[in-house]
Amino acid sequence: MRVDIVSIFPEYFAPLEVSLIGKARERGILDVRLHQLRDHAHDVHRTVDDTPYGGGPGMVMKPGPWGEAIDALLAEDPATLPRMIVPTPSGVPFTQRLAMEYAAEPWLLFTPARYEGIDSRVTAEYGTRLRVDEVSIGDYVLAGGEVAVLVMIEAVGRLLPGVLGNARSAVDDSFAPGAMENLLEGPVYTKPPEWRGHEVPEVLLSGHHGRVARWRRDEALRRTARNRPELLALIGTESLDRRDREVLAETGLAVADHVAGPAEGPRNRAF
Questions:
Q1: Which of 52, 63, 89, 177 is the catalytic position?
Q2: What percent of the chain has pLDDT above 70?
Q3: CA-wise closest residue to 9 among 156, 91, 114, 135
Q4: What whole-number distance in Å separates Cα of residue 85 and Cα of residue 78?
Q5: Which entry of 68, 116, 125, 172 is annotated as an active-site residue?
Q6: Fewest C-beta atoms under 10 Å: which of 40, 128, 147, 225?
Q7: Where does this protein hold S-adenosyl-L-methionine (predicted)?
């Protein structure tokens, strides 16, 4: 996958040289290219922002430098078009499903803004030629979009074939599409079996795969109810079995009584 990032702070992306993403770049799985937006501003101060029309606080990034920068990238490979991603608090939520969608793209172009954002004519212009997504990583405001790009590249990059040592890890993630979608991942443990008086749950040492799977689902339900109860509303009640309903009832969340399901154990689910 090719990834281009246009920013006034390309040095912000040094973390992409380390860990899994850095290794993916070394192996040629991920081709990350950084571009300085100010190279496309031609006044003596290399200005990329100006005051907003209509008044108001802050500055707006000028369309001219962005247009030149994006045009230069598109000219490098006229036969292929990137999917352009604009980080903004007013965008659609970035989710695991969207990360998987991006991981299937051959070329992504990120345009992180500063100040009050990019002149809206830029997205209007390139929206006629490219798939342009305005995306938010959360309900808060950052000093700039660079950190949002780091988050998205980390989420997308680890889904590319060959990046994770165990491909199953991506399937088992919280929010990974599947029957357990929208449930948070439960607690995890490793050796030693006892640490400072805290013991690993006996079921995880039992070797009984069915019991382990049921325990993990129970814990995922409990954690989701405790930390993100709103996600439970997104789970179809038809996917809940009797034990699921019992666990949720223990947390104080009631499930419709008409939902029927087997009591003997979990269904086959990926989590």
A1: 89
A2: 88
A3: 114
A4: 19
A5: 116
A6: 128
A7: 137-142
